[in-house]
Structure prediction request, 227 residues.
Amino acid sequence: SLSKSSIALWPVVIMLVGFAWGGKAAIGVSAAFVISIVSLTIAQLGGALPGPSLSTLGGPLFFGTVFFLMVILVCSLTVSYSRIFFDAFDALDRTQRELALSQRQLLAIIETEPECVKVLDTDGTLRQMNRAGLDMIEADSLDQVAGKSILGVVAAEHREAFAALNEEVSQGKSGTLEFEVIGLKGGHRWLETHAVPMRDEDGRVTGLLSVTRDVTARRQAAGPRPG
Prediction:
């Protein structure tokens, strides 16, 4: 067993734990500190009280108090880290919802854009096209043309120039081209396209983004070009 003087260590231990705690569970620490001061005062009375001497109880009470503080510390840290985890999870979930909303809004803007917005692979394969573009090539849905070469609707006399533009953009340049298309239902249109490269995080070109407008009316007003 420990002597009565060992009980004097209780306030010191409790204060150190409190400082290390950084203010967490202050009520528990304060209560334990008060209990320790009262216990120390009683111990100093000597054997005035009946029952086991405080000298005999000093050791168990000391270590019991330390154990009690450790339990409170573990519980407090568990609650704190759980709160941090759930706050981080909520923040991530909120960010994902905001990103999904932004993507839906962007798609809605592109889909209602009156000019054709399309994404091609570097080999000319159609990856994405909005409703305006599908109307220009007379496609009923994206599934009808996705994964196919856009050269299929380009008039034969313009295919070489269209392929050359795709090659330049695939190498990191941008370009413009005016060409004729023959829609899936036989309609003829003149289109003017502006194409730029799409890049990944490493700067590599992964596709072509182009905005295309219907210039048929302008071509008809200008009349046939010489030659």
User: Anything to note?
Assistant: The first strand starts at residue 116 and ends at 120. The radius of gyration is 39 Å. The CA atoms of residues 27 and 176 lie 73 Å apart. Helices lie at 9-21, 26-44, 54-112, 131-136, 159-170, 216-222.
